[in-house]
Amino acid sequence: MREYFHQSEERKDDIEELLQRYEDLRNGNSTSYLEEESFERIINHFESKEAFKKALQATEMAIGQFPYSAGLLIKKADLVLNNREYDTALELLDKAAIFDGNNIDIYILKTESLLALDRQEDAVALLEEALNLFEGEEKVDLLFELADVYDDYEDFEKVFDCLKWILELEPANEEALYKICFWTDYTGRNAESIELHQKIINEHPYSELAWFNLGAAYQGIKLYEKAIDAYKYAIVIDEKFDYAYRNIGDAYIRLRKYRDAIENLERVLELAKPEDVIYEAIGYCYEKLKNYAQARFYFRKASHLNEDKGALLYKIALTYYKEDKFELCARQLEAALKIKNNNSEYLLLLGQSKLALGLDKEALQYFLNVVRLRPKQLAGWEALFIGLYKAEFFEQGLMQLNNAFLRMGADKPLFHYYKALFYFGLNQPKQALIEFEAGLVGAPRLLKRILEVEPELLQRSTVNALILKNKKK
Question: Residue 8 pLDDT > 50, yes or no?
Answer without folding.
Answer: no
